[in-house]
């Protein structure tokens, strides 16, 4: 199919121009910064709202200050379809993470309007706030507010301002009463499903030379952000191996055994990724000639299967005990988080796959290794699906590179999925 996917429509905004305006509006010295509940995020939402209003779409805000753009469907009484993503970014991030999904939803609604067509059911674009975790050290605040999940987080403080989440919500016009009470702002019977288009955040689609992917599920996470291994310091040349309590060697041994488990799991064709993104000796003590007495490190384990995460959790506990005996060290695990995985809705995935085949759009099915707002909707029993767009150079950095022809193919898939009911 042509790269424009039927998007050369008179009066339709140029998506490249929208992305350019968004970048100019929220640029910092390196990339873009749209901090949660701060002026740049608000300005990004207002840009989308202004474009929607120019095309005679209904614009509103929900009780959590998320942006809602509505197009009535052929059956206005039927549960609606939500489509959207977030508009905040990490500090000095890229311009496409999150924003691609909001702009895609907006363009779909405008296309319906320009062609004088109505989708089968009402479609609502939702521009969600505060999806990224750095700002309050927790993620998906805009979507979690819909389901009454923010009450315990209102005292968290913003990394840039030190003000509480409660204060920031109030500053952007959110209705704090029901949020603080843990009330649901959306009910299951009001939403038939949720679609989210997003750039891929890794290299798989580049490697496989495919422009569009359908997400099978979002990996769950077992995270230990600060494990400490304590041994005993000593002179590097004076302590023989059998008398050492070397924290560095103990941690290396543990990570090697975790890597062996990962390889074994891959051989069994099971889904698993393991990362140790933090690994450091104490800078106040470390030296090339000193045996490490203390090492701090993190573990981030992800899988589409909760049973695999639980298996890794058990293996980690067993190996820690074994290495403590072998090496004469002590591990302190600290806080541990376990977020279950969420499968994307099978019916919606099939609908996307059949739609892609009908449109001649090459796709693959793949998991998402990163969390998204779609995970919150799925967890709350809202049928959910995600479309990935090929993107070079990863995400959460200024070098995100989503090519416009790829975006238009994904956009066509999303539009046709909204224009036709699933079988």
What does this structure look like?
This protein has helices at 15-26, 39-54, 99-115, 141-146, 165-171, 176-180, 204-208, 247-267, 306-327, 346-359, 373-379, 404-419; strands at residues 58-61, 67-71, 80-86, 123-128, 191-199, 212-218, 220-230, 234-235, 273-275, 279-281, 290-291, 294-303, 330-332, 337-339, 342-343, 363-368, 384-389. By secondary structure, it is α+β, with helices and mostly antiparallel strands. Strands 1, 2, 3, 4, 5, 6, 15, 16 and 17 form a nine-stranded mixed β-sheet that branches. Strands 7, 9, 10, 12, 13 and 14 form a six-stranded antiparallel β-sheet that branches. It has a two-stranded antiparallel ribbon with strand order 8-11. Helix 3 (99-115) links the parallel strand 3 and strand 4. Helix 3 packs across helix 12 and helix 10 packs across helix 12.
The chain-level mean pLDDT equals 95
DSSP summary, beta strand count: 17
Largest sheet: 9 strands, mixed
Strand content: 15-25%
Structural shape:
elongated
Write a concise synopsis of the structure shown.
This protein has 423 residues and is α+β, with helices and mostly antiparallel strands. It has helices at residues 15-26, 39-54, 99-115, 141-146, 165-171, 176-180, 204-208, 247-267, 306-327, 346-359, 373-379, 404-419; strands at 58-61, 67-71, 80-86, 123-128, 191-199, 212-218, 220-230, 234-235, 273-275, 279-281, 290-291, 294-303, 330-332, 337-339, 342-343, 363-368, 384-389.
